[in-house]
Amino acid sequence: MQLTFPRLLLKHAAERPGAAAMREKEYGIWQAHSWASMATLVEHIACGLHQAGLQRGEHMVVIGANRPRLYATMLAAQSLGAIPIPLYQDAVGAECVFPITNADVRFAMVEDQEQVDKLLEIRDRCPDLGNIIFDDPRGLRNYDEPGLVSLDQLIESGRALAGSQPFLFKTEVDKISPDDVAAMFFTSGTTGNPKGVVHTHATLLDRAQAGAEFDKLTTSEEVLAYLPPAWIGQNIFSYAQWLACGYVVNCPENASTVTIDLKEVGPTYYFAPPRVFEGLLTSVMIRMEDAGRIKRGMFKFFMEVAKRVGPQHMDGKPVGFAQALLYGLGNLLVYGPLRNNLGFSRVRVAYTAGEAIGPDLFTFYRSIGINLKQLYGSTETAVFVCLQPDNEVRADTVGVPIQGVQIMVADNGEILVKSAGLLKEYYKNPTATAEVLTVDGWYHTSDAGFIDARGHLKIIDRVKDVGRLKGGVHDGAMFAPKYVENKLKFFPYIKEVVAYGDSREKVCVFINIDFDAVGNWAERRNLPYAGYTDLAQKPEVYQLVKECVEKVNADLSVDVLLAGSQISRFLVLHKELDADDGELTRTNKVRRGFIAERYQPLIDALYSGKTEQFIETTVKFEDGRSGSVSATLKIGDSRTFAPVKAAA
């Protein structure tokens, strides 16, 4: 059988019609959708879209959270040979204009009134957008817009067409080839307009199956789909691998119930970017700070045991009888309850990707018995390039090339990849395609790294971001900003960091505090504050941040390559970096260049030796209004350490 997404759906529906394919939580109750009911739903939506005029090869935008009916709509579009484009549901209307116009989109499927309003707002800039289909009708009863129709109406018309033409759906599905385009994902657009990454059924399913074979995934896995479907990481785990493996995908009720739903589902296969794992650990540490003295003492003691013994225990290495006994007791009293509280009691494999994870953060989860591993990939590679084998997991690498992948390191240290999962092209952008794909099939990742002696890939940073210090005592030393930023972000009090130093004599950083963690810390010390800006500039908070910075400097001093990247000066920003303000991408990656332009006076102040600097910044509020935030920011100096020479 030639594998395509719709054919896999029909295969599961034929072989396991009554088995659960997806679950969603509504009004606190989990509702199951069987493979047979999903196949019927997809058929009716496909027939409705066919009747509405969706053509083979045409693009269709899908905007919303993870919902079975939105997934079914993507499958329905693919069944007709059309190409779904998931967009971020929290993107503002202006961000949707380029993808919609670039892809000549006529059809959009959206979740609710918020998304309908967003598309109606930009409709005058998207002249082809004639059909908007919505799932949730709440608040839309009195809307009278041309082309606006509910998904229920579309399904009803599709059901009628399927009844009169029972072979229409199957005939359309049979026309699809594995080499046909299956989906398009737009990149973050950190340096300009986003690029549409074109993937076929073959590229996405090849990588989905390779990842499934690597970790021996089965139909019995449980997955929680809570990240944006527009991010290819979520899409590959809860869509491509869902259809490749036939496991169950669970959709939480909403963003605020994810932690509760995680505990109820108890996933066996879990995926999250480092930011999520950072947030979970921060919540644990906040709760422990509020716990009684005996409980805090027990937690501290057994976490020291876990740090010493856990990673070796997880990798199946001998740890000695006494240590094994202590770890077992810790598992009974601390680690087991902690895993259960986090919702990870049944996790067999957990992955993190999207950006580097701090080694201490990574070790924490593995030390308490969670099989957290790193993977390496990107939108252009259909995610799976390198994965970490069980018992070969290290914090400083991203694993080994998996089945079907070749890796080559260029003379400048850039990682090049060849695999069956590479993008077909950047849509309508042959110049950009030629820049990343060589004529002999190698993809330029733009990441700098190397293969170590054990065959594991180690990523240093983005090639364009790796720089050198210039002048001063560390003249010529390597500077890898992401590496420095991630080390600082391990601390629960620090949420985001932006490091600068390339072609300068020293490294300076902007820091965002974690408002919840630092707020809790301040309240326990009876330190009053009036919001984020006030708290961020407290002298006590600066001292707290300074201690974190100096611990990172001590760690960097023993790193042969990056000892020169120690942080000399820092400031705590007066506002949180925000995607709505253009400072982060929708996948929460720092837009370092944009931030440098926006906060140039602060960078100048850091490097000119000033002790404070006034700044006023325009911000966008959730309701769409604009305003400004201003403050006089203190600038702190931090202690640096003499590089420790490597042992001979």
Shape: globular
Question: Which CATH C-level class of the domain at 5-199 is it?
Answer: Alpha Beta
State the fourth-level CATH superfamily of the domain at 5-199: ANL, N-terminal domain
Structural class, from helix and strand content? alpha/beta
Based on CA atoms alone, the radius of gyration comes out at 25 Å
Spatial order of the strands forming the largest sheet: 4-3-5-6-7
Tally of strands: 29
Which architecture of the domain at 5-199 would the CATH scheme give at its second level? 3-Layer(aba) Sandwich
What percent of residues are in strands? 15-25%
- Number of DSSP helical runs: 21
Quote the distance from N terminus to C terminus: 59 Å
Largest sheet: 5 strands, parallel
Mean pLDDT: 92
Structure description:
The chain is α/β, with parallel strands linked by helices. It is built from 21 helices and 29 strands. The strands form eight sheets. It has a five-stranded parallel β-sheet, with helices on both faces. The protein is globular. The protein starts with a helix and ends in an 11-residue tail after the last strand.
